[in-house]
Design goal:
The complex is a heterotrimer. Chain A is an alpha/beta fold. Chain A is built from 25 helices and 14 strands. Chain B is mostly helical. Chain B has one domain. In chain B, 72% of the residues lie in helices and 3% in strands. Chain B has a two-stranded antiparallel ribbon. In chain B, helix 1 (3-34) crosses helix 10 (236-255) and helix 2 (41-57) crosses helix 3. Chain B is globular, with a radius of gyration of 19 Å. The chains are: A alpha/beta, B mainly alpha, C alpha/beta. At the A-B interface, helix 6, helix 11 and helix 13 of A face helix 4, helix 9 and helix 11 of B.
C-alpha cells in the first residue's frame, strides 16, 4: 500500500537528512562523470557544453518557480538577459581594477533578484493570476527587448561599457577569480565548464532541499490549492513574491555565466523565442523534477544539433513533431513519465485497497489530547466572540445577505439554516474573509475584521471548512495535516507530532501516506475538519459538513462537532435536519438574505412559518412579512 | 497644423490600427472563446500569405487568391483541431508546447517547399496624394480588409446558427449541450474560423511585407497582447484594444522610434492588465 | 417511457445517488421531493446527461441513455431546465429561444411563433438580453426554450425557486397546458409543495440518494404530519 506513494515521497516529506545525502551523492556522482568526460574531450567541446550548462541553470529557475510554485513565468530568459548585461557592465568597468569578475557575477545575481522582486510585487500584490502572469512577464521581456534594441550609439553606455543596441555588448571579460592576496586567475574553458556544471548541480540539490523544507512544501500546496493555503493562514502573496525572487536570482546567475562564456550578449535574449524555449525545456523534461531541467535542455538542444548536423534542413520539423508527441503521449514531461511506468503497478495496488464508504475508519471519540490546545483550562473562558453587525453583501442588484446582525457565543455550537438561496454560505464567506462586505462590520471580540484578508483571519483564530472539500488532493493526508499544523506552530517537529495525533484521532493513520484524493468522500470531509482544528481556532465555521455522508458518518460527525463546541465557537450551516436536531444547539434561520428567526430546534419546529418558508408557496410570503 | 500633415498622420494611425485588428481578430476567436493559446497563430498568418502567393503564381487574380487562401487556411485549421487541439482544451501549458512544435514544423515545411528567399506579390493598386504627402492606396485596401474581417466575424457570430451556438457554448457549455448543441463540433468550427481569419490577415498583408517563412513571428506577440487587453468580447475586445494600443504605438513611433512604439504598446498592455485583469471588456474584480 | 434501475452517480469520489429506480409512463406528471442535499438535482443531471452515471441502467423509449452525451439525449427528445434557469445572459430572448432549436434539424420558426403565442410576455421582450429579465421572466424563458424543440420528456429542476406567486400561476398553467395539449411527460424537482401539487400527481420522495417513497401528491399536500416527516425540520 505504501509503495504506491513512492512518486509522491520523492517530492515531499520523508526523512530530510537521508534524502539530502542521496541527492548530494547523486550530484557528486554526476559531477564525477562530467569531470571525466570534460577532460577526455577537446576543449572546444567542453566550451560548447558550457552553454548547455548555463541554459540548464536557467531552466532550473523555471523549475523552481513553476514546478514548485505554479508561477507560469515567461520572464526567466529576460532576467537571464539582465544578469548577462549586468555582468558585462560590471566586468568591463571594474575587472581591470579588481582583477576578478566574481563580483560581477554577484552583481548579476543582485540585478536578477531586484528585477524579479519588482515584477513579482507588481503582479502578485495586484492579484494577477495564471495566464496573466505569463502575459505580463512576456510583455516585460519584450519591453526590455525593444528598449535594449534601441540603444545603439555611444550615448548609451554605463562607464566604459556601451549597450551596443541591436549589435549587443562585446568584449565581456571571461570569468576570472582572485583569492585575497593572490594573483588573478582566468579560468580555462574546461575549468569554466566544470564550474558551470558544478554550479548547476549544486543549485539542483538546493532546489530539492527547498522542496522538502517548509517553504517548498508551502509552495507546492499553494500550487495545488491556493485558497486552502490562504485559509490555513499563509500569506500567499508574500510567498509567491519570495519564490519568484529566488528564481530571479538563479536566472540572473545563469545570465552572468552565459555572458562570461560567450563574452557577448545581445537583445534577442529578451525576445519571444528564448522566453518560450525555457518553458519548452522544462515541459519536455518534466516541470516537477530538477533532473527534468537538465534532460529537457539536453533533449531539445541535442535534437537540434544532432539533426542539424545530419539532415540539417529538417531539424525543426523533427523537434516540432517531438514536442507534439510529448504532449500527446507523455503528458507531464519525460522524467515524470519514466517514473510513472515504474510505479504504475504500485499505484494499481494502492487503488485497489481504496477505502469504501462503508468500512472507512471513523474518528475516535477521544478528542481531549488533540484539543487541549484549544483552551488552556476548562474553567477559564478564553473563547472569542465573533459577530456580524448589519452586514450586507450585494452581487450586482441582488442582496445575498441583507443587513444581518448576529452575535455568536464564545463557546458552543450554533446552527445556521434556511432554504436555498437564503445566504448561509455567503454569510460564512463573509466571516472567513473570502468575500468582502458591501456594508456592515465583522468583529472578533473588539477587533474589526472587516478589512482583513482570509489568511489574517485564519491566524487570528477563524477556521473554515468549505462546502466542497477544499484539501490538497494530490498530497498525502499526512502532508495535508502537516501544512495545517505548521501554519500555526511554525515548527517542523511539533507540526509532525500534532499531525500524527490528528491522523490518529481522525482514524486516518492507516491511510496517511495515500493521496488525499483517493480517500472516501467522508474521510476527505473529516480530513478538512482536522486541518481546520490544527490551526487551533477559536471560531470554527463548517459549511455543510455532512454533505454526501452516510448515516453512520453523520452520527460520528455530530459527536465530533459537539466536542469541538466544548472548546470553541462552532458555527454550522446545514441542510440535514436530523443532524441539526442531534446537535441540539441554538439555531438562526436565514430567508432571502435576512435573519428570519432564532431559537432552539423544538421551538422552531413548532413554528408554522418555518415549515412554510421551506415548503414555499403562499404561506412563505405571508410568513416573511 | 496643415491639413495634409494631419491627414497623413491620421491615415498612418488608421493603418496601424487596421493591421493590429487584422492579426488579432482571428486569435480573439480561438483564445477568447476557448482559452486556447495558439503559438502557431503567426504561422497561420504566414500560411495565408504563402497560399496567396501560390494562387497568384498559378494565374489566379490577386483578390481571388486572397479569398481562396483564407478558406484554405481555415480548412487546415480544422484539420489541426481534430488531430491536435481537441485533446488539449483546458491544458494551457500543453497547448503552448504543442502549438509551438506545430509552428516549428510549419515554418520548416514551408521553407522546404518555397525556399527562404523573399518573394514579392505586386501591389495591385497605386499611390495617391493629399497635399505634400503621398500615400499608398493599398493601405486603404488594408483598412477595408480589417473592417471586412470585423464585420464578417460580427455577422457570423450574430446571424448564423453556428455563431449562436458558439456564443451560447461560451456562456454556459453545459446548458448549450443540454439543449442539443454538439459543443465538440462547435470547437472545431471555431478553431477553423479563427484560422481562416488569420489566413485572411496574412493574405492581405502579403503585398506589403516580405513573404518569408518566418514572417509570422513578428505578429504573434502583438496580437496576443491585443487579444488579452481586449478581453472576452470577441468583436468589441480586439477592436477596442487595437484602437487603444494601436493609437499608443503609432503616436510613440511618430514621436520617437518604431522600437519605442513597440515598447510603449507593451507597457500600456501591462498597466491595463494590472488594473483590469480581465481586459477592457471583462468584469472589474473577482472578490 | 423513462426507466431507471439502480442508477448511481456522484461528483468525483462523492457518491450522491445510491441506486435510484423509477419508471415514468408517457404523459405522466411526477414530482421529485425531499429535503436539501438528498440528491434531487443530481438525479436530474444524471437523467439529462450533464453528469455521467457510474452504475445502473437508464433507458428512454427503449434506447439506452447511459453512453449518450447530453446533446444526443436532447435530440432524442429530452429537455432539461436546470436549477437557476441557466439562460444565456448575454443572448437576447429571441436568441435564447433559437438555441432551444439546436436539437432539431432545420429552422424552428413555427415552434418559436407558437411559443410567443403561448407566452406573450416573451414576445414583447424578444430583443431584451436574457440577463436583464427578472427571475420569473427568466423562468418562463427557460421553459419556453425547452419547448421549442418539441421534446417528449421535460425535466424541470425547481422551477418555482425565487419566483413571485403571480408568475407562479402562469408557470403552473403553462406546464399544465404543455402536458395536456402536447402530451409531454413532466418530471419536476420541487421544494414548493403547493406548486408541486398543482403540476404533478405522483410524488417521488428522495432521501440520502434513493427514492424511499412514492405517494399521491394530493395526499401529501393535505397531511401535515407526512410533510414534517419527509420535507421539513
Amino acid at each position: 500500500m505504501n509503495a504506491g506513494t513512492a512518486r509522491f515521497r520523492s517530492q515531499q516529506a520523508g526523512s530530510a537528512r537521508g534524502s539530502v545525502r542521496n541527492d548530494t551523492a547523486a550530484a557528486a556522482a554526476a559531477f564525477a562523470v562530467v569531470a571525466v568526460l570534460a577532460n577526455l574531450v577537446e576543449e572546444f567541446t567542453a566550451f560548447e557544453w558550457t552553454l548547455w550548462a548555463t541554459q540548464a541553470i536557467l531552466a532550473l529557475s523555471l523549475t523552481l518557480v513553476w514546478g514548485q510554485g505554479g508561477i507560469f513565468s515567461l520572464g526567466q530568459a529576460a532576467i537571464y538577459g539582465v544578469g548577462g548585461y549586468t555582468y558585462g557592465f560590471w566586468a568591463i568597468n571594474l575587472a581591470d581594477n579588481t582583477g576578478e569578475t566574481m563580483s560581477a557575477v554577484l552583481a548579476a545575481v543582485a540585478a536578477g533578484t531586484i528585477v524579479a522582486a519588482l515584477l513579482g510585487y507588481f503582479m502578485f500584490y495586484g492579484n494577477v493570476t495564471d495566464v496573466y502572469v505569463a502575459i505580463i512577464t512576456l510583455a516585460t521581456s519584450l519591453v526590455l527587448f525593444a528598449f535594449v534594441n534601441s540603444t545603439s550609439g555611444t550615448a548609451y553606455r554605463i562607464g566604459d561599457a556601451p549597450f551596443g543596441g541591436y549589435n549587443g555588448m562585446t568584449r565581456i571579460p571571461r570569468l576570472t577569480v582572485r583569492l585575497p592576496g593572490a594573483e588573478s586567475y582566468m579560468l580555462t574553458r574546461t575549468q569554466f565548464f566544470l564550474v558551470c556544471a558544478a554550479a548547476g548541480l549544486v543549485i539542483a540539490v538546493v532546489i530539492r532541499v527547498i522542496a522538502r523544507r517548509p517553504f517548498g512544501r508551502v509552495s507546492v500546496a499553494l500550487q495545488h490549492n491556493e485558497l486552502r493555503t490562504e485559509l490555513l493562514g499563509y500569506d500567499v502573496r508574500r510567498h509567491k513574491l519570495a519564490l519568484f525572487t529566488v528564481g530571479g536570482a538563479i536566472a540572473g546567475f545563469a545570465g552572468a555565466l552565459f555572458a562570461a562564456w560567450g563574452r557577448f550578449i545581445s537583445p534577442p535574449v529578451f525576445s519571444l523565442a528564448p522566453a518560450a524555449l525555457v518553458v519548452i525545456w522544462v515541459l519536455v523534461g518534466g516541470r516537477t523534477s530538477v533532473a527534468g531541467a537538465f534532460v529537457g535542455v539536453l533533449v531539445v538542444k541535442g535534437f537540434s544539433s544532432w539533426f542539424g548536423g545530419a539532415s540539417g534542413d529538417n531539424e525543426p520539423i523533427v523537434l516540432g513533431l517531438l514536442l507534439i508527441v510529448i504532449v500527446l503521449a507523455l503528458p507531464g514531461g519525460i522524467v515524470p513519465s519514466l517514473g510513472r511506468t515504474r510505479s504504475r503497478i504500485s499505484r494499481f495496488l494502492a487503488s485497489r485497497s481504496r477505502a469504501s464508504a462503508a468500512d472507512a475508519p471513523v474518528p475516535s471519540q477521544n478528542l481531549d489530547r488533540v484539543l487541549e490546545v484549544l483552551s488552556d483550562t476548562g474553567s477559564e473562558d478564553r473563547g472569542h466572540r465573533i459577530a456580524v453587525r448589519g452586514v450586507t453583501k450585494q452581487f450586482g442588484g441582488l442582496a445575498a445577505v441583507n443587513d444581518v446582525t448576529l452575535a455568536f457565543p464564545s463557546r458552543g455550537v450554533s446552527c445556521l439554516i434556511g432554504p436555498n438561496g437564503a445566504g448561509k454560505s455567503t454569510l460564512l464567506a463573509l466571516l472567513s474573509g473570502q468575500l468582502r462586505t458591501t456594508s456592515g462590520a465583522v468583529t472578533l471580540d473588539d477587533h474589526d475584521l472587516t478589512k482583513w484578508h482570509p489568511y489574517r483571519r485564519a491566524r487570528g483564530g477563524v477556521g473554515i471548512k468549505l462546502q466542497v472539500a477544499s484539501i490538497y488532493k494530490a498530497l498525502t493526508a499526512r502532508e495535508n495535516l502537516w501544512l495545517a499544523c505548521y501554519a500555526k506552530s511554525r515548527s517542523i517537529e511539533s507540526a509532525r507530532t500534532r499531525s500524527s495525533e490528528l491522523l490518529e484521532w481522525l482514524g486516518l493513520s492507516d491511510d496517511a501516506e495515500r493521496p488525499a484524493g483517493t480517500l472516501s468522500h467522508g474521510q476527505q470531509q473529516w480530513l478538512e475538519v482536522g486541518m481546520v482544528v490544527a490551526g487551533e481556532p477559536s471560531v470554527v465555521l463548517l459549511d455543510e459538513p455532512t454533505a454526501g455522508m452516510t448515516r453512520d458518518e453523520t452520527e460520528r460527525t455530530a459527536a465530533l462537532v459537539a466536542q469541538l463546541g466544548e472548546r470553541a465557537s462552532v458555527i454550522v450551516v446545514e441542510h440535514d435536519m436530523e443532524f441539526v436536531r442531534r446537535l441540539d444547539a441554538p439555531i438562526a434561520v436565514l430567508h432571502m438574505g435576512s435573519l428570519f428567526a432564532q431559537g432552539s430546534f423544538e421551538q422552531l419546529s413548532r413554528d408554522e412559518r418555518i415549515i412554510d418558508i421551506y415548503l414555499g408557496g403562499r404561506h412563505a410570503d405571508a410568513a416573511s412579512e | 497644423m496643415a491639413f495634409d500633415r494631419l491627414f497623413n498622420l491620421g491615415f498612418d494611425l488608421v493603418t496601424s490600427i487596421s493591421v493590429l485588428a487584422l492579426v488579432s481578430v482571428g486569435l480573439a476567436i480561438t483564445f477568447g472563446m476557448r482559452g486556447i493559446i495558439n503559438l502557431a497563430h503567426g504561422e497561420f498568418i504566414m500560411l495565408g500569405a504563402f497560399a496567396t502567393l501560390t494562387g497568384v503564381r498559378n494565374g489566379l487574380n490577386t483578390w481571388v487568391a486572397m479569398l481562396a487562401a483564407a478558406v484554405a487556411v481555415g480548412v487546415f485549421g480544422i484539420i489541426v483541431e481534430r488531430l491536435l487541439i481537441r485533446w488539449l482544451y483546458a491544458r494551457l501549458a500543453d497547448t503552448m508546447l504543442a502549438t509551438w512544435g506545430l509552428s516549428l514544423v510549419m515554418v520548416q515545411v514551408i521553407e522546404n517547399i518555397y525556399g527562404s528567399v523573399t518573394e514579392g506579390i505586386a501591389v495591385p493598386v497605386g499611390d495617391f496624394s493629399v497635399g505634400n504627402y503621398s500615400m499608398s492606396t493599398y493601405n486603404v485596401v488594408l483598412m477595408g480588409a480589417a473592417v471586412a474581417c470585423v464585420l464578417v466575424t460580427y455577422a457570423v457570430m450574430r446571424h448564423t446558427r453556428y455563431g449562436l451556438h458558439a456564443r451560447a457554448s461560451v456562456q454556459s457549455p453545459s446548458m448549450a449541450e443540454s439543449l442539443g448543441v454538439n459543443t465538440s463540433r462547435i470547437n472545431m468550427w471555431t478553431f477553423g474560423f479563427g484560422a481562416s481569419l488569420a489566413g485572411a490577415a496574412g493574405a492581405v498583408l502579403a503585398p506589403l511585407v516580405g513573404v518569408i517563412p518566418t514572417m509570422g513571428q513578428t505578429f504573434v506577440a502583438r496580437s496576443f497582447m491585443t487579444v488579452i487587453v481586449g478581453g472576452p468580447a470577441f468583436v468589441a475586445g480586439p477592436v477596442s484594444a487595437s484602437g487603444l494600443l494601436g493609437f499608443i504605438e503609432n503616436v510613440s513611433t511618430n514621436l520617437f522610434t518604431p522600437v519605442i512604439g513597440q515598447a510603449m504598446l507593451l507597457i500600456a498592455a501591462i498597466v491595463i492588465l494590472r488594473f483590469l485583469p480581465q481586459g477592457l471588456t471583462g468584469q472589474r474584480s473577482l472578490r | 417511457m423513462l426507466q431507471a434501475s439502480d442508477l448511481r452517480a456522484g461528483y468525483g469520489s462523492a457518491a450522491v445517488l445510491h441506486g435510484v429506480s423509477l419508471s415514468l409512463a408517457e404523459g405522466e406528471r411526477a414530482a421529485v421531493l425531499g429535503r436539501n442535499g438528498v440528491g434531487k438535482t443530481t438525479l436530474m443531471r444524471a437523467l439529462s446527461g450533464t453528469i455521467s452515471s457510474t452504475g445502473g441502467t437508464l433507458t428512454f423509449q427503449g434506447t439506452d441513455l447511459v453512453s449518450l452525451r447530453p446533446h444526443e439525449r436532447a435530440r432524442l427528445g429530452i429537455a432539461h431546465v436546470p436549477q437557476g434557469r441557466d439562460i444565456f445572459p448575454k443572448l437576447t430572448v429571441a436568441e435564447n429561444l433559437r438555441v432551444g432549436a439546436a436539437a432539431i434539424r432545420g429552422s424552428a420558426d413555427a415552434q418559436i411563433d407558437e411559443v410567443y403565442d403561448e407566452f406573450p410576455l416573451l414576445a414583447e421582450r424578444r430583443r431584451a438580453r436574457g440577463g436583464s429579465l427578472s427571475g420569473g421572466q427568466q423562468q418562463i424563458l427557460a421553459l419556453a426554450r425547452a419547448l421549442v424543440s418539441e421534446p417528449k420528456l421535460l425535466l424541470l429542476d425547481e422551477p418555482s425557486e425565487g419566483i413571485q406567486p403571480s408568475i407562479l400561476d402562469e408557470i403552473a398553467e403553462a406546464i399544465d397546458h404543455i402536458n395536456f395539449a402536447r402530451g409531454i411527460t413532466v418530471l419536476v424537482v420541487e421544494q414548493n409543495l403547493d406548486f408541486a401539487a398543482r403540476i404533478a400527481e405522483r410524488g417521488l420522495i428522495m432521501d440520502k440518494g434513493e427514492i424511499i417513497e412514492t405517494l399521491d401528491i394530493a395526499e401529501l399536500h393535505d397531511n401535515r404530519d407526512l410533510q414534517r416527516k419527509f420535507l421539513a425540520l
